[in-house]
Amino acid sequence: MEVLCLLAVEEEVAQVxxxxxxxxxxxWRFETATSAGELKGWAGRNVDVLVLSRxxxxxxxxxxxxxLREFFPVSHVVLLAGAESDAQRxxxxxxxxxxxxxxxxxxxxxxxxxxxFEALREVEKELEEERTMEELxxxxxxxxxxxxxxxxxxxxxxxxVGKTTVAVSLAVALAxxxxxxxxxxxxxxxxxxxxFFGLKGTPGVELLAGKPVTGELLRRVLVRARPGVDVLPxxxxxxxxxxxxxxxxEITRELLKMYPVVVxxxxxxxxxxxxxxxxxxxxxxVLAVVDQSRFSEHNVKSYAAKLLEAGVKPxxxxxxxxxxxxxxxxxxKVENWFKEALKGRAKAFPMVVAVVPSDWxxxxxxxxxxxxxxxxxxxxxxxxxxxxxAAAARHEYRPVKRSFFARxxxxx
Length: 412
What we know:
alpha/beta, Rossmann fold, 2 domains, five-stranded parallel β-sheet, 15 strands, 36% helix, P-loop_NTPase, CheY-like_superfamily
């Protein structure tokens, strides 16, 4: 398998560094990014190895380090810190605090014994070890058929890990990019999606129980929460409505005729709910939310197994890693834990598709106002995820750039 190595280094040395590394690692493919802007353009792509120079122009080097895992959650990273100085020592200290260990110091090729060549040889060994695991194909979001919309479900095996916030953030991001969305609160016992838009207590899905499902009836119950976001609220009293067998799936199929994307917020304890197993079976994509601060290796492996038992197809699964801190388990480890749990039971493994940093509470606070943190930043993780989902739904994603005053007075 080809190794893609991205060299994020200043333009003056880019070609020299690339030529030397191509001779040392002839089977690798090398690409270059000579500014922070170019580097961010690679975000969301499958970069195996990232070599980042402290001198890359375009952004403060420490600030860029802090965002690096949002852009490249599972890439192996080698940092080029440069010759010793106060700035270099501060950079190395910040890198270590953020959990980065592959740090080359000194003028290139670096201080011995840990030169850039040695650092990349260590990465090469790590890549070989990863590939000794059972070969599985990375999950790609499958395109939907033209005659229906795309169903995206957000799942978690415990409450309080940010599942509803992820569902709301994705729905708002898609709508802001020009993709109309129905946001469905399937968490009937603990409905919360409407509260994120200040619509708490609004009657919803209970009005549909036992009735013939039609688009006209659904339009009476749907609530316009934001431009482009219509919400099908959960029951106002938190009691599970008396749906007839298969009716929840009927409601969902009707919504898929009306909207290009339907985002569903699912209950955390899902194994015993047959209607939810039906939904997982027809979903094009399931986002498994992992709270990095609360999930151990055992938790993640158990979670992956429960998702399979609940009817989730491994080839249609992605991982959202929230409350991310580089000091905890790396995104690559989380992917590998899923992979190990799926050994012999799947032909594809889920990838980390979004990394939300440890300031998760800011997302929650904004989510309860129907807002999304960082949506004005074109490199925000929600944009990349929404763009991929929009493409699979056969829609163009066009995030709108707004003026300062528009952002100041906006509700979304």
